[in-house]
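sanity check this:
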Amino acid sequence: MNRRTLLNGLAATGAALLAGCSSSGGDGEDPGTDETTEPGSSQSPTLQDTEFVVDDRMSGGERDEATVRFEESRVVVEGVIWGSDGCKTATLLGSDYDRESNTQTVTVGTTDREGTEDQACTEAIVEIEYTATATFEGGLPGRVVVEHDHGNEPVQVTEAEL
């Protein structure tokens, strides 16, 4: 927001200097300027916030799945990651945006649920459903990659393009 104020101020000052007077003749806003600089290709989106929610846990198999949905200013990832036992839950390991490649990478892993350190856990595989949401300003990433990490190296589960 400070960038817009600065750009609008510089535009108004430049117009006043070119016109040879000290009044801009208006409120200093040029809606066309904001339209072309904010969502245009010369400027990348900015990651503002991320949210991660575990939606459900159930017994199951070794499923690693995810879907990506692009909304107005958000990227929503809904997925299923498997845990090795009944004490596992999903956690967001990273939600990173790379401006150069215009790619957001969402990495989900598993960890022990809080309070289960001294408990006996089922030794059955669990499927953990989750939703990861990333809010952007100035547009959306052109590509989203979803990875699952089971303690080794992250494995790509899906990717989507805007």
About this structure: The chain is about 15% helix and 50% strand.
